[in-house]
């Protein structure tokens, strides 16, 4: 009994320490965002609790840059990316899970293989294609949004995740739908898709987080300040305020709020849906 208790205590201790190490950067960022101008943020030993606590950093960063515009741009890009991923990943995954056709396994494993290719490796050709299609913000804002969204409109991870979810749907459900007169699209849209809502929520959360925090692609594609997303706009604070880390920290904290809200809104589906990708297929 004592050995079992010590084993559990050791495991919990390791988990607690790991959690604190993971959360510490966010705690330090929050602490920096509340420190006053007379307080040294690089002091050693570091001071977690601000001595000169102030909200001025949040007020200043909100008013001195187009923070509302950056926020709106990020919301538009993230919303479009999430919607397209849910629709296209589901449409691509359904036949891979529920239909039989020649070369299905080859197509599926070819899609999975693309996960091993980092975006940085294909970024140059994608950028050239985007320029030739004139999907840049210098043409107009609409084309700029399309250029930001299209490279991430569907992902191999999303297709894999949705395929695994569709595999869990009993075949009897589809057979009953066919008996009731449903065609393939009606069966997909009205019967099967509502049964995998938890997995859709998981895909939505991961896609939203990835799109909201994307920095590299927008920093390359965007040329107008009015089209900046939050990561690009916050990075621009370094030059505008001579790397005022208090403003940067405050802007970063504000930028994380939508992610937290979105996750809290979707978490009731998230827990039940995150295991769908573990189904053997």
End-to-end distance, in Å? Answer: 40 Å
So how many helices?
Answer: 14
Number of strands: 0
Number of domain units: 2
Largest sheet: none
Report strand %: under 5%
CATH class of the largest domain: Mainly Alpha
Describe the oligomeric state of these chains in a short phrase. single chain
Structural class: mainly alpha
Percent helix: over 70%
Helix-strand layout with pairing:
Layout (H helix, E strand, L loop, with lengths): L1 H32 L22 H9 L2 H32 L5 H10 L5 H14 L8 H9 L6 H12 L3 H9 L4 H9 L4 H16 L3 H6 L8 H6 L1 H4 L4 H29 L8
Give a verbal description of the structure.
The chain is an all-alpha fold and 281 residues long. It folds into two domains: 1-54, no CATH class; 68-278, MetI-like fold (Orthogonal Bundle), CATH 1.10.3720.10. The chain has 14 helices and no strands. The chain has helices spanning 2-33, 56-64, 67-98, 104-113, 119-132, 141-149, 156-167, 171-179, 184-192, 197-212, 216-221, 230-235, 237-240, 245-273. Helix 1 (2-33) packs across helix 14, helix 3 (67-98) packs across helix 7 and helix 3 (67-98) packs antiparallel against helix 10. The radius of gyration is 23 Å and the shape is globular. The relative contact order is 0.14. Mean pLDDT is 84; it is low at 275-281.
Name its key features.
70% helix, mainly alpha, 2 domains, MetI-like fold, disordered C terminus, globular, 14 helices, 281 residues
Summarize this entry quickly:
With 281 residues, the protein is mainly alpha-helical. The chain has helices at residues 2-33, 56-64, 67-98, 104-113, 119-132, 141-149, 156-167, 171-179, 184-192, 197-212, 216-221, 230-235, 237-240, 245-273.
């Amino acid at each position: 009994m004592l050995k079992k208790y010590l084993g559990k205590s050791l495991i919990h201790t390791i988990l607690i320490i790991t959690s604190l190490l993971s959360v510490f950067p966010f705690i330090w960022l929050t602490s920096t965002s509340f420190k006053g101008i007379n307080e040294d943020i690089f002091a050693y030993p570091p001071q977690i609790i601000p001595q000169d606590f102030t909200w001025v950093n949040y007020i200043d960063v909100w008013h001195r840059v187009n923070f509302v515009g950056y926020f709106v741009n990020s919301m538009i890009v993230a919303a479009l990316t999430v919607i397209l991923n849910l629709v296209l990943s589901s449409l691509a995954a359904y036949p891979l899970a529920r239909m039989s056709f020649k070369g299905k396994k080859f197509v599926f494993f070819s899609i999975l293989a693309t996960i091993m290719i980092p975006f940085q490796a294909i970024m140059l050709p994608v950028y050239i294609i985007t320029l030739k299609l004139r999907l840049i913000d210098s043409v107009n804002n609409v084309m700029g949004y399309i250029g930001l969204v299209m490279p991430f409109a569907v992902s191999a991870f999303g297709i894999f995740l949705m395929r695994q979810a569709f595999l869990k749907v009993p075949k009897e459900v589809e057979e009953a739908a066919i008996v009731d007169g449903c065609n393939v699209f009606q069966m997909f849209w009205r019967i099967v898709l509502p049964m995998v809502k938890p997995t859709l929520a998981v895909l939505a959360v991961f896609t939203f987080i990835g799109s909201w925090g994307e920095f590299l692609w927008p920093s390359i594609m965007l040329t107008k300040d009015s089209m900046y997303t939050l990561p690009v706009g916050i990075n621009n604070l370094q030059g505008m305020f001579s790397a005022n880390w208090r403003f940067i920290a405050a802007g970063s904290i504000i930028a994380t709020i939508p992610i937290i809200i979105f996750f809290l809104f979707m978490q009731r589906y998230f827990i039940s849906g995150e295991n769908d990708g573990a189904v053997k297929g």
